[in-house]
Amino acid sequence: MVQNHALQLLTMVAMEPPARVDADAIRDEKLKVLRSLKPFTADSVACDVVRGQYRAGHIAAAPTVAYVDEAKVPASSRCETFVALRAEIENWRWAGVPFYLRTGKRLAERDSEIVVNFRPTPHSIFPGHNPPNKLVIKLQPEDGLEVHLLAAKGSGNSERLSPVSLDLDFDKAFAENRIGAYERLLLEVIAGRLNLFVRSDEQEQAWRWVEPILHAWQRENEASGGPRPYAPGSWGPAAAIALVARDGFAWAEEH
Fold it and tell me: Where do the domains of the chain lie, and which CATH numbers do they carry?
């Protein structure tokens, strides 16, 4: 999920505008992002990557088994069912901006979204705590856009800002001619459009970036280590919360 889905989303968010709207121009820009990702080392994997494996528990009052008790899964399996990591893109636009990727099974919600947190204003002229604006790109189960802003209510010099949100539901706004994601991919293949597909050099670079993580986990497994346990219906191991809190941030559900 990290090497293919999550990294593809990262490249689409961080890439520069392509020179043309064609497959190679788009994939060239995505490849530049992959090549700019800061490489992992053994030390940075230990610091910036969290892996977990769900244990037995309950979801909505229904009992669930641990991953190692699932059918055809070895009892000694150390396969991860959760990954959270911190990435950096070493180019002039994104230098110093952390990117957090997270994916897992048996989490609190089946949800997929991209959250873009804008920088806070260096000096606020309004009283009170004023968090920065936020853009949420919703992918699943419903696709749409949310913009979270602060707006002034009332009048006078002491007015405070209150949170407001703008919500664009694609199903409502574009009710006609809506097609599913996989249906669109099939139509793109039939039409010979490759904009949404990954080129071989993209695949190779993505694997090149995640390989140090896999090697570090293999060494950890051989040293009797393994994934951190987490309860089903949660948002993963507590270490994933600490991963973003270290930079003064929080996952979307914590706000």
Answer: 2-108+175-254 (3.30.360.10)
Q: Which pair of structure tokens corresponds to residue 138?
A: 């919703």
Please write the tens of the pLDDT for every residue from 23-40: 999 999 999 999 999 999
Tens digit of each residue's pLDDT (9 = 90 or more) over 105-151: 999 999 999 999 999 888 888 888 888 899 999 998 888 999 999 88
Whether residue 181 has pLDDT greater than 90? no
Q: What is the CA radius of gyration of the chain?
A: 21
**Integer Cα distance of 225 and 208 in angstroms:** 24
Contact criterion met (CB below 8 Å) for 26 and 8: no
3-state secondary structure labels for all residues of 44-102: HHHHHEEEEEECCEEECCEEECCHHHCCCCCCCCCCCCEEEEEEEECCCCCCCCEEEEE
Give the predicted TM-score (pTM) of the model.
0.91
179, pLDDT greater than 90: no
Residues annotated as part of the active site: 5
Instruction: Return the number of other C-beta atoms located less than 10 Å from residue 101's C-beta.
Output: 17
CA 26 to chain centre: 21
Residue 102: closest CA among 246, 237, 248, 255: 237
Q: CA 151, CA 143: separation in Å to the nearest integer?
A: 25
